[in-house]
Amino acid sequence: MRLGRIKVSPEEGPAAYHCMTRVVAGEHLIDDPAKEILRRQLWLVAEFCGVEILTYTILSNHFHILVRVPQKITPSDTELLRRYRLLHPKPTKYQQARIEVIEAQLSAGGPEGEAWRRRQLALMGDVSNFMKLLKQRFAIWFNKAHRRYGTLFAERFKSVLVECSGNALRTMAFYIDLNPVRAGLVADPKDYRFCGYGEAVAGNASARAGLCQVHGGKWQQAHAAHRIGLFGTGSAPRLAGSTIAPAAFQKVLRQKGQLPLSTVLRCRVRYFTDSAVLGSQAFVALHLAAYRRRYGARKRSAPRPLQPITDWGGLTVLRALRRSPFG
Q1: For 302, which DSSP code?
Q2: Taking Cα atoms as reference points, which of 278, 159, 277, 165 lies closest to residue 213?
Q3: For 145, which of 39, 75, 199, 312 is 20 to 30 Å away at the CA?
């Protein structure tokens, strides 16, 4: 069965997604100043769209976001205008005049105000519109700042629907925050400014709230749980035993051996980017059945357990990978 991007209707309840997008041709174009702009825009666009950033990582040629889309609600006109102003913090005279016209139209209850309201609501509570708006705004800034033109990102973003709580959400958060470690930039993601965990450790309230949603409880408990997930045990990075050379990893794979989860997560795991749905067997089966009902697909797929190189805690995926899930 050929699977497209699987999404949950906002009316069905909250949903979590791992979204990833790459720079065109894999070029390393996003330097630290550009990462800072993208980091700021990430939080602004998320607030405008009414989605919640659980964690993220920005690298020089791609970025990852773990986002939660709450059950859809209709904001008031006052809230719509507040969010609209977020995207125009320093409005031009034209933009300021337009905001005043919009306010008048909304107060009058005329067709122009209703049309504006519909356009704004269409951008909210949807992961595709969130990613589209974020990529568009950043690409416009980047091209202007670097005197370039044309596309900045290589393709539409990839996404994996993630079970909104429990082991799947936690494991995905660990994997995303370990991106700078896999890239060899830092030994501990707390030292990397452009990831959710690094921001949370530095004191960003929104980043801390995201990880608290992942783990439950207050920041101190969530922080301790995240450290254990990132490093296996204890609160400090353990270089010995926490990384593995590619050749050694492939040897363990061939011999059907076992490795700690924290070690496996330091390798590239395609399950987390290419599997369509990640979660418990019941969760994956539920969304597979919904996909079949929606598109009339035949029964040619089933929830698939992850390759047992580690204890995945019962995780299953939907899409069968055509190449090795690791490396």
Answers
A1: -
A2: 165
A3: 199
Instruction: Provide the CA 287 distance to its chain's centre, in angstroms.
Output: 19
Per-residue pLDDT band for 128 (boundaries 50, 70, 90) equals very high
CB 75 within 8 A of CB 83: yes
Q: Who's near 218: CB < 8 A, 6+ residues apart?
A: 212
Task: Give SS3 for 20.
Answer: strand
CA 82 remoteness from chain centre:
24
pTM of the shown model: 0.91
Delineate the domains of the chain, giving CATH numbers in brackets. 13-72+129-317 (3.30.70.1290), 77-123 (no CATH)
The length of the chain, given as a count of residues: 327
Closest C-alpha to 302, from 313, 312, 314, 292? 292
| DSSP result, 218-234 | -HHHHHHHHHHHHHSSS
CA angle 153, 158, 163 (to 5 degrees): 145
What the block records as the tokens of 151 is 């596309």
Residue with token string 């069965």: 1
Cα(81)–Cα(271) distance, integer angstroms: 40
pLDDT digits (tens, 9 = 90+) for 135-165: 999 999 999 999 999 999 988 899 999 999 8
- Could you give the residue ranges of the DSSP H alpha helices within the chain? 32-49, 77-86, 93-108, 111-122, 127-146, 167-177, 179-182, 196-202, 205-215, 219-231, 246-254, 261-264, 271-274, 281-295
pLDDT (tens digit, 9 = 90+) per residue, 240-299? 436 788 888 889 988 989 999 999 999 999 999 998 999 999 999 998 888 777 766 666
CB 274 within 8 A of CB 158: yes
CA dihedral sign, ordered 146, 191, 166, 75: negative
Edge-to-edge strands of the sheet including 62-69? 52-58, 62-69, 15-22, 158-162, 277-279, 316-317, 304-305
Half-sphere exposure of 194 (CA within 13 A, CB side): 23
What is the C-alpha to C-alpha distance for residues 263 and 247, in angstroms, rounded to an integer?
14
